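Support request, please re-run this one:
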Amino acid sequence: MGVQQETGVGSEELEVWIDQDLCTGDGICAQYAPEVFELDIDGLAYVKGGDDELLQAKGATTPVPLPLLTDVVDSARECPGDCIHVRRVSDSVEVYGPDAE
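Re-run finished. Output below.
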């Protein structure tokens, strides 16, 4: 089922958010996708908005640019804190991350 879900995701709008309560500050996400993630002075990772500004509000989301989808998904899979969540915008269903089915 997971493979079917992944192949159908390509055309859907996705967004990503980070649960800072679980963030280990490892920085893997910023290494994979520096256009989307950045570590702040507090040592935690945050998503960035379109203007490269850190979005520090709890649960803040940012769109996943299609060319960066693989990097964002790899970030979610490799994150030691399991704190990166990628979901469909249309129905808020998580497609990658700790709560993905």
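The radius of gyration is 12 Å. Confidence is low (pLDDT under 50) at residues 1-8.
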